[in-house]
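User: Please predict the structure of the protein below. I'd like the answer in structure-token form so I can feed it into my own downstream comparison script.

Assistant: Understood. Taking the following sequence of 81 residues as input:
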Amino acid sequence: MADLPTDIATMSFEDALAELERIVRQLEEGKGRLDEAIDAYTRGVELKRHCEAKLAEAQARVDRIVLGPDGTVTTQPADIG
């Protein structure tokens, strides 16, 4: 996430997703100037990448806490979706 703008890189997943949803609604309305739509689309792509990275981090954290059948800690992937 080093190449993301600082304001996006520091966002929580929930805040980034909310802004991404707002941008999608705005673009779907088709109102506004073309250059503004392109800028919004670019920011939306960055927000999407940030959300995907946050989800991957969460998945990795869940994977690390799974216990094996004998009670030992394992790194098995969690089946969450």
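That's the full token string. The mean pLDDT is 87.
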